[in-house]
Amino acid sequence: MRKHITLVLAGLLSLILAACGGQAQQSPTTAPAQPATTAPEQPTAAPAPTAAPAATAAPAGGTPAQPAAGGQIERILARGTLICGVNNNPLPGFATVDTAGVRRGFDVDFCRAIAAALFDDPDKVEYRPLSAQERFTALQTGEIDVLIRNSTWTLGRDGNLGLDWAPTTFYDGQGMMVRKDSGIETLEDMDGATICVQTGTTTELNLADQFRARGLTFTPVVFPDGDSTRAAYDAGQCDGFTTDKSGLISSLTLLSNPADHKILEVTMSKEPLGPAVRQGDAQWFDAVRWIVFATFQAEEYGITSQNVNDFLSSDVPEIRRFLGIEGDLAKGIGLSNDFAVRIIRHVGNYAEIYDRNLGPDTPFNLPRGLNALYTEGGLLYSPPFR
Ligand SMILES: N[C@@H](CCC(=O)N[C@@H](CS)C(=O)NCC(=O)O)C(=O)O
Question: Which of the listed residues 44, 152, 203, 229 should we mutate to test ligand 1's pocket, taking the one with most ligand atoms within 8 A of CB?
Fold first, then answer.
């Protein structure tokens, strides 16, 4: 009988965990932690055009799927705005709306960079705020052109959801926040802990994997969005709060007493975050990829929003090609030949984007770490513009 009840509880939890499309507010579960193998990652449970071409993507909310084969850039240009999917909850440093109603953040700046490349105007963006559960469906159905919402590139998502990831713009990893007075220093100190975690994310499975690998037990307290997850932790409902370290750093600023909390040293996963597009339009995918690469390359050349005009008279062949002064390299990806100049002029190179949102003059003062250029010990590397 006892075994039966446990099985029913386990089944219920799996259902809750799998209800990725569900919009109803879930009450936190206090069911025992599930082994990783029984908890499917939410996004793969979304209605996905798995093996079918993107053209057959199931319409959602009455929005017809758009034709798959090419033409995305022309459609965006004809519409006059880029539709960029961003986080619906405030994620300071990455995506927020300031007091004047202006969207700001690292992710927002990449939406702006794409609009700058397309329209020579970074403001030609229509932002579509999306929850973790909504984000991939919005991309699959063509409701958005690109998703830039702290979304981790994984094999399951890339392979099963009919999506493609552009180069990683922020190398992240999952972290754990605890109260300073808890005495917790490592995950091993968290055996039997309750942990606040958001559904529809890579976070849930990583948590289960990490605790299982260490032979630790925990009780997940699961919420459907970032705000309620953070609020529950802030109210003392959980011993720990786990998400991407970028999300934790960002959330810290929103807690009632940030100084009472700390983020543990441990990094529980790899979370390469970057823009995603719907599969089926190789030119659009290439354009987004090279827009991201242009921000890396501009930093490598030392070209900034302040000095880009000086470089327009450069006689260095590779810089002339990069800035579109010579050749017609960008034609093949459907962009104007000066797309890099447009991005740099309006939004800046990668370092400018990073520093503006996360650098020393921001509350985050986040070291570049893996997000430095390869020439500085990081992972950012652009293929040649030739
Ligand atoms: N990078 C992870 C986590 C992304 C994620 O959704 N993080 C949370 C916590 S920072 C978030 O953005 N929450 C805001 C919300 O969905 O309301 C993923 O792609 O699954």
Answer: 203
91 lines ligand 1 (CB under 6 A): yes
Number of H helices, E strands in the chain: 13, 14
Q: Are residues 179 and 138 in the same domain?
A: no
What pTM was estimated for this model as a whole? 0.84
- Same domain membership, residue 158 and residue 275: yes
Q: Based on the domain organization, do 167 and 184 belong to the same domain?
A: no
d(CA 65, CA 242): 35
Which of 209, 242, 269 delimits the end of a domain? 269
Same domain, 134 and 279: yes
Query: If pLDDT is split at 50, 70 and 90, which confidence band does 5 have?
Result: very low
As for how many domains the chain has, the answer is 2
The residue among 269, 301, 334 that closes a domain is: 269
Task: Please check whether residue 125 is in contact with residue 115, taking contact to mean a CB–CB distance below 8 angstroms.
Answer: yes
Dist. CA 86–CA 83, nearest whole Å: 10
Can you tell me the distance from the alpha carbon of 132 to that of 55, in angstroms, rounded to the nearest whole number? 23
Residue 152 CB less than 6 A away from ligand 1: yes
> What is the extent of the structural domain holding 334?
43-172+270-386
Question: To which H or E segment does residue 67 belong?
Answer: none
| pLDDT tens-digit map of 292-314 | 999 999 999 999 999 999 999 99
Q: Is 271 in the pocket of ligand 1 (CB under 6 A)?
A: yes
